[in-house]
Write a structure and sequence with these properties.
This protein is an alpha/beta fold. Helix content is about 35%, strand content about 15%. Helix 16 (about 400-410) links the parallel strand 11 and strand 12 (about 415-425).
Length: about 450
């Protein structure tokens, strides 16, 4: 006999408020918040994107949502709200508004000094273009002085990106002595020297800052002795495992041989034995290419090389100089991963343990635009002759061709991952030649075919 049961009381009216703090202990909530801190939505509204562009705090929007729930959650989320701080000012993106927001943030730090311990990632300086408006510039210089005073006090800072700016000796010394700094980026680096700013104590600086792993140097213009000495101190850190170098993009601003290569001559070879990843842009001149090739012997343990190509230079000029430079297997002998123009890949893969090649289509686009004749993609694919089977190949081409895929099947049948991305609207025709090529890729685990208009 069926019997009707009364519903339990908790199926009745829900309580007016829920005390979330009793559902899980604070340690568990903290774990949840940590996961939210590294999560970003895949899309957002236009209003939120615009607001975030000029904001000082660049934490995940999920963290802001959690912070608004209650005082309890705000206390837990506060250290994550202040992890990424953006104090960089762009001349053409409402600089006065950004400066006011930076001032409010700096005022907050004076009231709450504990916030300084929460900052992990920091952006400072000016964007790609210097501020020229006199009123804005005056305001910026006043704020800049406060920011520069702040940086050495951020003892838990792990990453620092510096836009266009001039370092004082005291600021540069403070940066080098940050105990947890792992990543540093400098743009148009200059070390100014004035009467109130004494010559840096390089010996004291060299005893600190041993955690620096990744250094990015862009657009060195100043060649003053102080700037040169400062860059030598940065580059000679034996802890570096990743180095990124970009010269000035425009030839008229470069002058002769880049200061970067001159500086490297003052650094012992053993310093770069710890280097594992190198990202570099080379000017198409004989002496620049020779310096780069010589640098390859100083980097016996580099496993990843990204060769960037400057859109204002001719790729064929740089390629011709590389081919005539004596580049051989004893330059970058441990290379495993190459990313750059496909025309350059055979020179860097031959007789080296390279198992990954990712192509860059910009050089192809430049040659096509200028009507230059170049070797085919299929020819370059066949010319990839590393000392180990190629495992990953990512081709980005200007025009689709069955011959490209047929060459892959013929010469690199051991591929595990293959991406073929072409620019255009044509559909990829599954011709007998293409089908046969894919049939040869017996070990393929991941295949991506994509067209980009």
């Amino acid at each position: 006999m069926l019997k009707t049961l009364n519903a339990p009381k908790f199926f009745g009216r829900m309580p007016a408020t829920i005390d979330y703090t009793t559902i899980l202990p604070p340690e568990m909530w903290l774990t949840v918040i940590k996961l939210l801190a590294v999560s970003f939505p895949t899309f957002d509204s236009t209003t939120k994107r615009k607001r975030n562009k000029d904001s000082v705090l660049k934490s995940s929007p999920y963290i802001w949502t959690v912070s608004a729930l209650s005082r309890f959650f705000r206390q837990l989320a506060d250290p994550f709200r202040f992890q990424r701080v953006h104090l960089m000012v762009h001349a053409f993106q409402e600089p006065l508004l950004k400066l006011r927001r930076i001032e409010r943030f700096l005022d907050l730090l004076e009231r709450r000094p504990e916030v300084k311990l929460w900052v992990r990632v920091l952006f400072i300086g000016q964007g790609s273009f210097s501020i020229e408006h006199q009123e804005v510039k005056k305001k910026y210089l006043a704020v800049e002085a406060r920011v520069y005073k702040l940086v050495p006090e951020l003892q838990n800072l792990q990453s620092l990106s510096c836009g266009v700016m001039s370092f004082s000796s005291s600021l540069f010394g403070g940066v080098l002595q940050l105990p947890r700094l792992e990543t540093l980026e400098v743009n148009d680096f200059q070390l100014k020297q004035g009467q109130p700013d004494p010559t840096p104590n390089w010996d004291a600086m060299n005893r600190h800052g041993g955690l620096l792993r990744t250094l990015t140097v862009k657009a060195i213009v100043s060649s003053s002795p102080h700037t040169t000495s400062a860059l030598i101190r940065l580059l000679q850190r034996e802890s570096l495992t990743a180095l990124v170098y970009w010269p000035h993009l425009f030839p008229e601003a470069r002058g002769g041989v880049s200061l970067f290569w001159i500086i490297l001559q003052h650094i012992p070879d053993y310093v770069f034995t710890c280097l594992r990843r190198l990202t570099i842009m080379i000017q198409p001149s004989d002496i620049e290419v020779q310096r780069f090739v010589q640098f390859g012997t100083q980097c016996p343990n580099v496993t990843s090389l990204t060769l960037n190509w400057n859109f204002v230079d001719s790729p064929s000029q740089l390629l011709d100089r590389l081919r005539g430079s004596g580049l051989a297997e004893h330059h970058f002998p441990a290379l495993q991963h190459f990313k750059g123009p496909l025309d350059f890949a055979p020179s860097f893969t031959r007789d080296r343990p390279v198992d990954t090649v990712i192509s860059d289509p910009l050089a192809q686009h430049r040659r096509k635009h200028e009507g230059e004749d170049g070797v085919t993609v299929a020819f370059n694919v066949a010319a990839l002759k590393p000392s180990v089977p190629l495992r990953v190949l990512h081709l980005i081409v200007m025009e689709r061709s069955d011959a490209d895929i047929e060459a892959v099947g013929q010469h690199h049948s051991g591929l595990e991952e293959f991406t073929y991305e072409y620019i255009g609207v044509d559909d990829l025709c599954w011709s007998p030649g293409v089908e046969g090529a894919f049939g040869k890729l017996a070990t393929l685990r991941m295949l991506t075919l994509e067209n980009t208009e």
